[in-house]
């Protein structure tokens, strides 16, 4: 088969892995960022009200969802009721699939060899972190596409010196920034590449910056039209990212070490151990070889290195180290991995060895892909847990559970469900006083995910009441015992990878671990008060 057929097959594989089970919540939606985006879509009404009042992200994806529904409803009014969650997930999967093709084009420029370019594309198509992001109505998959299209046109400009490629790269960067403002970290790269050559440097730079700014304003006009809100949100979000303000969903990052945290808690799961190890090796090798040959410097790999560092370094050293913050770096690991493989195979200069190396590498990598993809082959764990509860727990039972999830298990049933604000118990004396009476009343307690107990047992000195509660629960002193656990760990045959202790957003949205506790000992109110008193 020729290269065109291979890349088509790889793109189709990537599309299948991304579009399969886009409705993974089976009618329920568990990702909080999806609600924010859908709420912004619902606020739009063309042409009178186009301010999304959402500035945590750019408005590209919000407008795309809205105008898609508007256009389709002009063909048939029934389309107006299209589920915005699913439309957004469609675009995430769509742009993530296109990224496979873009990285293939980039790799052709960098490696000048179709075998290696196809290997890069296959890694991108099967990278678990990219597959997961493609299943969310969030801006990351769209952002990654525009960033790598920017890199592709930048490579074309460096190679061919045709100005249209420079200006196309500027437009792509502008749209990327309008998708998510963090893409601004690559703006210095645009300036640097526009200064390439000897003629009209200032003019090219000015036009490039103008086109990037104009593209940004076209897709995110209310960043200027509602400057006050945009500025306030940006300052707030930056404060969260830098740890100036700790909120309940950033507590997992307290006392974590930059770079080490990502290497331990994000990349092994999102990339797989093989791509992580070989990708880091390829990055180090590319830096070494590039600067070893300064007189014959490879500008294309230098651009890849600079783009990777421009985006990753600021994000590595943020207080908030969410998986989605690092997702635009995932394709770089594929490129650096293949760079290492090319260098290694060139040492032997044997065609058969090269093919065996590439096939073996991709097969080992795909094992982790298959393990991760297994979560989409099963019912959502919260659906399964709810079904079991409805079959096994007595009707009208009192169920105490954790609050601040988008939805709590059981999702339905004839039960009295009491979501409790554990996050605030250390700052709210009234909450503290209410807990013993709720424990007396409750028949069952349900842990919705790892968020509370993992993040707070680490810091009994910061959150003494939360950590005390979970210590007592796990020791059995509260009179409850675990009767059932529901998980959807990555799995292949008998091999299972418990990934609950990865960075929490890797698992809590689409495959959390649900634990159900039953009261087996009735404890008096005054005894609960003594146990819980700090």
From TrEMBL:
Keywords: Cell membrane, Glycosyltransferase, Membrane, Transferase, Transmembrane, Transmembrane helix
Major localization listed first in the record, in broad terms: membrane
Biological processes per GO annotation: lipopolysaccharide biosynthetic process
Domain annotation Glycosyltransferase RgtA/B/C/D-like: ranges: 83-222
Membrane topology note: Multi-pass membrane protein
Keyword Oxidoreductase appears in the UniProt entry: no
Protein name: Glycosyltransferase RgtA/B/C/D-like domain-containing protein
Native source species: Candidatus Woesebacteria bacterium RIFCSPHIGHO2_01_FULL_39_28
């Amino acid at each position: 088969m020729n290269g065109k057929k291979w890349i088509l097959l790889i793109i189709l594989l990537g599309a299948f892995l991304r579009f399969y089970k886009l409705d993974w919540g089976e009618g329920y939606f568990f990702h909080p960022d999806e609600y924010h985006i859908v709420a912004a879509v619902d606020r739009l009404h063309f042409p009178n009200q186009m301010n999304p009042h959402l500035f945590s992200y750019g408005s590209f994806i919000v407008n795309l969802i809205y105008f898609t529904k508007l256009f389709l409803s002009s063909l048939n009014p029934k389309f107006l009721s299209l589920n915005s969650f699913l439309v957004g997930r469609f675009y995430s999967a769509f742009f993530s699939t296109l990224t496979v093709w873009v990285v293939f084009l980039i790799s052709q420029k960098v490696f000048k060899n179709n075998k290696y370019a196809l290997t890069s594309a296959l890694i991108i198509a099967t990278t678990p972190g990219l597959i997961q992001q493609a299943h969310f109505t969030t801006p990351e998959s769209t952002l990654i596409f525009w960033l790598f299209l920017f890199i592709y046109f930048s490579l074309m400009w460096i190679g061919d010196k045709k100005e249209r490629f420079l200006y196309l790269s500027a437009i792509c960067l502008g749209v990327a920034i309008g998708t998510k403002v963090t893409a601004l970290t690559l703006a210095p790269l645009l300036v640097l590449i526009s200064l390439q050559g000897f003629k009209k440097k200032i003019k090219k730079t000015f036009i490039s910056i103008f086109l990037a700014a104009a593209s940004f304003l076209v897709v995110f006009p209310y960043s200027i039209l509602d400057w006050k809100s945009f500025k306030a949100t940006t300052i707030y979000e930056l404060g969260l990212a830098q740890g100036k303000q700790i909120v309940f969903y950033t507590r997992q990052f307290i006392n974590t070490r930059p770079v080490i945290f990502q290497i331990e808690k994000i990349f092994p799961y999102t990339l797989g151990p093989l791509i992580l190890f070989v990708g880091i090796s390829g990055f180090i090798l590319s830096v070494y070889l590039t600067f070893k040959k300064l007189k014959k410097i490879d500008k294309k790999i230098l651009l890849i290195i600079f783009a990777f560092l421009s985006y990753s370094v600021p994000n590595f050293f943020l207080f908030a180290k969410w998986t989605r913050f690092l997702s635009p770096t995932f394709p770089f690991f594929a490129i650096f991995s293949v760079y290492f493989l090319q260098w290694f195979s060139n040492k032997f200069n044997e065609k058969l060895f090269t093919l065996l190396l590439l096939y073996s590498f991709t097969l080992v990598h795909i094992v982790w892909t298959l393990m991760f993809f297994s979560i989409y082959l099963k019912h959502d764990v919260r659906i399964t847990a709810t079904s079991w509860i409805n079959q096994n727990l007595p009707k009208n039972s009192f169920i105490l559970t954790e609050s601040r999830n988008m939805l709590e298990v059981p999702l339905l049933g004839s039960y009295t469900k009491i979501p409790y604000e554990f996050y605030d118990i250390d700052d709210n004396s009234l909450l503290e006083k209410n807990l013993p009476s709720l424990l007396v009343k409750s028949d069952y307690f349900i842990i919705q995910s790892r968020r509370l107990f993992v993040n707070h047992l680490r810091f009994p000195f910061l959150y003494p009441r939360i950590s005390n509660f979970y210590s007592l629960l796990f020791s059995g002193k509260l009179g409850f015992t675990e009767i059932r656990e529901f998980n959807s760990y990555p799995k292949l045959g008998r091999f299972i990878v418990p990934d609950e202790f990865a960075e929490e957003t890797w698992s809590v949205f689409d495959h959390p671990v649900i634990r159900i506790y039953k009261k087996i000992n009735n404890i008096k109110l005054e005894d609960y008060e003594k146990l819980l008193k700090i």
